[in-house]
Amino acid sequence: MADFSEELKKLPAQPGVYIMHDAQDAIIYVGKAVNLHNRVRSYFRKIVGRGPQIDRMVKQISRFEYIVTDSELEALILENNLIKEHRPKYNTMLKDDKTYPYIKVTVGEDYPRVLFSRQMKKDKSRYFGPFSSSQAVRSTIELINRMYGLRDCNRVLPRDFGKERPCLNFHMDRCCGPCTGNVAPEDYRKRIDMALEFLSGNYKPVIRDLTAKMEKASEEMKFEEAIRWRDLLQNVQQVAQKQKMSEGLGENRDILGVAVEKENADADGVVQVFFVRDGKLMGREHHYMTHVGGQSEGAILSEFIKQFYAATPFVPKEIFLPTEAEDHALLEQWLSARRGNKVTLFVPQRGKKEKLVELAGQNAALILQKDRERLRREEGRTIGAAKEIAELLGLPSVRRMEAYDISDISGFANVGSMVVYENGKPKRSDYRKFRIKSVAGPNDYACMREVLTRRFRHGLEERQEMEEKNLDEEVGSFTRFPDLIMMDGGRGQVNIATAVLAELGLDIPVCGMVKDDNHRTRGLFFHNVELPIDTSGEGFKLITRIQDEAHRFAIEYHRSLRSKAQVTSRLDAIPGIGPARKKALMRHFKSIEDIIAASPEELAAIPEIPERQAQEIWKFFHEKENKES
């Protein structure tokens, strides 16, 4: 770790934000402080005692900088903005950066609409939400528009009265048709007022009205109409039923619960949020927080509140917490400034409110448990599968595996692929494509020799560069060598790989992925022996995935080169064929095969191709075929 003794002496005893950089000058941590002098110095004491994450971060600090602010509140706002912009590696981060939907009623218009919105603006509209489900919002809007015959068009009324014909919704009796000019603003406003009552949770008048309409239509034997009213009634009853558990919850508040996998130093945490709006539970959502190992619930809640409420346009009047958040008073001050009036962070101690916080915590724990089980299954498919392969081959470990494949069609556009798996998962950033340079015809062994020679020779050059420059960091993508090379084939491909490695002085285990007559993986060829595999095991499934991935990657590259080469190389070789004529040929015939199959007359039918040029094209392909045969 670098010596910062001189820089630390210069730190001011003022509030501000400090920014930690690593050796590559990347920002790895952002924090705020009431007193920069005391806070930053605390990181570089011999005994830090803030958990493994911070201790690990401190070892990587190459330099730090700071920004002085006028107050701790300004520091909090600046810290939040910097974290959001740079997403430092060691900050506790909110994974789910979501925007929540609202129902927007444009009451400032002469003929208001009920709309879906992702933003809550300071305009003349009324907003309901936020809601956790976009689908639920859209369904509710559709229900309201159908019940009250509201418009959902973008016409500016009354300016656009009669300018266009009424839409289909008017003819289907789903809209009262204010665009016709036959609906008075007062009558339409009554419909909007009823919609606002509904959105505010007053469902009884709506249920009573729909029931009466359904019964009346049924008595008059208008059964289709009665069914329509019945379906609307059932939809309203479902919406009303969802709100029963939330009676007595008060006005607008969020209820937070938190759960952390405490035994894991690199664990994630889960924060559960219940949204209560106008005294009704409108939905719930959970969020993952990274790098929470060793941190208190108060610290996790503090980071969540800063990041979550900085991104959402709505801040409730109250936020219930399971425990007091760090910087409790400062957070209240910041949230109040965002809302425009007082916001209270409250830790309920008894009664229904305390039970709701407990329920949120239980939900967070359940989500964390499910996630832990999912990770355990994923680990079986990845790390566990890699361990099975290592045990089968008698190797200590196979953390990194590289697989290779060759793709060509009769020696045309030979290509090679390299796919990389680390801890049983594909590492796509390390995938590489090779266009074969030294092999002209169909010779998979020679192509594979070139691919492996280029890959490992390049890697050795990068390693030498690291040694010469005395670097700890890798200088290129080929620096890391695999624990195991997996060849798509048996003895022949394995022998090519071992020969290349011997020439380069490398000792890396090589095995072949052997397929049966039905092109299905049946075993591994290793040390001149074919080892059978348990086809029901995770190791076998991983081998199959790696083999399929290497083949897919090679095929896709070959296909892209083939399409380019067919359009360029083969047509460019014909005298008189420039970009315009080449484009005209491909636009008309779609593929090189169709051009080859075309007669001189069909070629000359293209306006851009003269008759003489059509003859040249036909001769180029067919005389070449005759010579080859």
Mind explaining what this structure looks like?
- With 629 residues, this protein is an alpha+beta fold.
- It folds into 5 domains: 5-91, 3-Layer(aba) Sandwich (GIY-YIG endonuclease); 102-246, no CATH class; 253-378, 2-Layer Sandwich (Nucleotidyltransferase, domain 5), CATH 3.30.420.10; 387-564, Nucleotidyltransferase, domain 5 (2-Layer Sandwich); 568-628, DNA polymerase, domain 1, CATH 1.10.150.
- Helix content is 45%, strand content 18%.
- It contains 21 helices and 20 strands.
- Strands 13, 14, 15, 16, 17, 18, 19 and 20 form an 8-stranded mixed β-sheet that branches. A 6-stranded mixed β-sheet has the order 4-10-9-8-11-12. A 3-stranded antiparallel β-sheet has the order 2-1-3.
- A hairpin with a 5-residue loop joins strand 18 (510-515) and strand 19 (521-526).
- Helix 8 (204-219) runs antiparallel to helix 9, helix 12 runs parallel beside helix 13 and helix 13 (383-393) crosses helix 16 (538-567).
- The longest helix is centred in the middle third of the chain and has 31 residues, at 351-381.
- The relative contact order is 0.06.
